Inverse folding.
């Protein structure tokens, strides 16, 4: 089973700053299969980046993803207050077919 | 509107059973694989179970295999999670989620229900 480790656990930044969230995999993950989700309190998660680089529908272009192999990152270029949330990376493939990182809490 | 409505949660004693339901609307349900994902209070997301569009392929997390059963009724646009032998560790919000796989190249969960809460306690 591939283990995803996210860092930092909590990130506290100010509006307008840049946030970089990391996701490290215990084995190589195809870039097609690495996704990021945003979850706000009391809401289900929503996909924001799929296939490492691709923004989901309706996601602002201040969100971007990059990475390859065992290292992936989510960058939010200029933070807005509404970006406060927990962010999870997720990989597809193998057994189990899906698993998630433990999450990074972003406080604005 | 594409929508998933999950239901069936509640309070149950350890060792008890519960059946969750997820009703889909706004898309061709039988063509899409579905998942159940859970989140214990204050914790992260845990994938629980997967079922293919036809219902012939199923996968389970190690933590629930042998106790939980995922199924679907494409005529009713619904997916289910039968949960038996429940323990306190199963206490969580349970979400159903649709798998999207554009061009069968990317795989992710693009539509989620609002979640249904399961509490296992004596």
């Amino acid at each position: 089973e591939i283990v995803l480790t996210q860092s930092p656990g909590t990130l506290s930044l100010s509006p307008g700053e840049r946030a970089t969230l990391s996701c490290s995999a215990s084995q190589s993950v195809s870039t097609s299969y690495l996704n990021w989700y945003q979850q706000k309190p009391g809401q289900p998660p929503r996909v924001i980046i799929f296939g490492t680089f691709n923004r989901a529908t309706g996601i602002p272009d201040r969100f971007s993803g990059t990475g390859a192999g065992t290292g992936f990152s989510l960058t939010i270029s200029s933070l807005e207050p509404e970006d406060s949330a927990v962010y999870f990376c997720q990989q597809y493939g193998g057994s189990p077919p899906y698993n998630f990182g433990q999450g990074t809490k972003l406080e604005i | 509107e594409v929508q998933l409505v999950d239901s069936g949660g509640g309070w149950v004693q350890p060792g008890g059973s519960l059946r969750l339901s997820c009703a889909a609307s706004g898309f061709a349900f039988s063509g899409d694989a579905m998942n159940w994902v859970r989140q214990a209070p204050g914790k992260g997301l845990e994938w629980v179970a997967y079922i293919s569009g036809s219902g012939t392929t199923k996968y389970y997390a190690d933590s629930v295999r042998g106790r939980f059963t995922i199924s679907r009724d494409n005529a009713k646009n619904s997916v289910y999670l039968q949960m038996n032998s429940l323990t306190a560790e199963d206490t969580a919000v349970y979400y159903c989620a649709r798998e999207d796989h554009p061009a069968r190249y990317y795989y992710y969960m693009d539509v989620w229900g609002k979640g249904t809460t399961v509490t296992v306690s004596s």
Observations:
- The mean pLDDT of chain A is 96.
